[in-house]
Design brief:
This protein is an alpha+beta fold. It is 29% helix and 22% strand.
Length: 218
Amino acid sequence: MKRLRAYQVSDGNDQTVIRFATNSATARREGAGEMEVDWSEVDYCTRASQYDEFAPGPVPPLVRIQCGWWFECSCCGAKVDEYGSSRDYDEEEERVSGKTVADGQFVYCDETCRQTEYSERRARRAGEAALLEVFDVKFPGAKAVHVYASLEGRRLEAGTQFGQGCYGSSASAVHFTFPASLGTAVWVLGDEDAGVQARDHEAWRAWRNNKASSAEAT
């Protein structure tokens, strides 16, 4: 079996990827696919032997940074390159280097940014769990397919059917299916009812009426 070799493939604009392949043609084709461009739109495909040791990939982001690549911090969005983070840049001062950290393929300005994102991720998971608890009580028997917890600080942000939160951001919402539904419905935290597709209006009324009758019987 032929050894995989590293190739750097670029569309000549904003996209450059590293592909591991046994030949340039394969690397070019796979690189074009990853960048979602046609073969003819690839500007160049060149050997990048400095990355061969990382076959079959991916190449660690900190290694790519040392080779001149740059990333956006997964927490604050600042540009992170071999000189450090643009978040620390001041026109009158040099950037502080050597603080960049990575977690898998995610890059952070420093440990503070990484821990901040961890904290936000934990808060969002807790928010999603709390939102699901409210949803399950309001629409028992429905099945959540997508949950989005919009947080204002540590509080879930409510909104309207149109998904608009009180601070102008998307409100906390649950997309779900219900018995006999053909599509998905959406319930926004704070609304009394859910938004249902036209084709599911009849099934929704039947299901909700049945729920009401069952509640009265108990």
